[in-house]
Specification:
Blueprint (H helix, E strand, L loop, with lengths): L1 H4 L15 E11 L3 H11 L4 E2 L7 E6 L8 E9 L3 H16 L4 H5 L6 H23 L3
GO biological process, one term: microtubule-based process
Keywords: GTP-binding, Microtubule, Nucleotide-binding
InterPro entries: Epsilon_tubulin, Tub_FtsZ_C, Tubulin, Tubulin/FtsZ-like_C, Tubulin/FtsZ_2-layer-sand-dom, Tubulin_C
């Protein structure tokens, strides 16, 4: 179950964790999951994962022995990883295609307090975020 959580097919953003640097990772388990099982799987998975040097033990583990209704056990994995850079770049490209053509812009500009500058500021924030993740990937462990 924990191995599946790290599989690309079970992720919201299909970006292999092994291709980037992990800044932090949380495993939130419910049901019949023991701490020893979680620790054993973390030790096994560590070989394929690269953490940033300043947070090599950046794991957060949450255990709740009450399972979800109709489910014996479950796990939620949250990871802050630089491998999301590719998805963020695609988001930027798709945004720029639509923004250049001013597609759907009128829907947002009709709302009070929304201005074109907000879109430009958000785009700049996205560009800075992409650059920060690229800088993290350059760090040698």
């Amino acid at each position: 179950m924990l191995t599946e959580a790290f599989s690309v097919s079970h992720q919201l953003f299909q970006s292999p964790l092994s291709q980037g640097m992990l800044l932090a990772c949380a495993l939130l388990c419910r049901g019949q999951v023991s701490m020893s099982d979680v620790q054993h799987n973390i030790d096994r998975l560590k070989a394929n994962l690269k953490f940033v040097p300043w947070n090599e033990e950046g794991w957060k583990i949450g255990l709740c022995n009450v399972p979800h209704i109709g489910c014996r056990s479950s796990v939620l994995m949250l990871a802050n990883t630089s491998s999301i850079t590719h998805s963020l770049c695609l988001l930027q490209e798709n945004f720029m295609k639509m923004y250049r053509k001013k597609a759907h812009l009128h829907h947002f500009l009709e709302v009070e307090c929304m201005e074109k500058d907000i879109f430009r500021a958000s785009l700049n924030d996205l560009i800075l975020l992409i650059q920060e993740y690229k800088n993290v990937e350059k760090v040698q462990g």
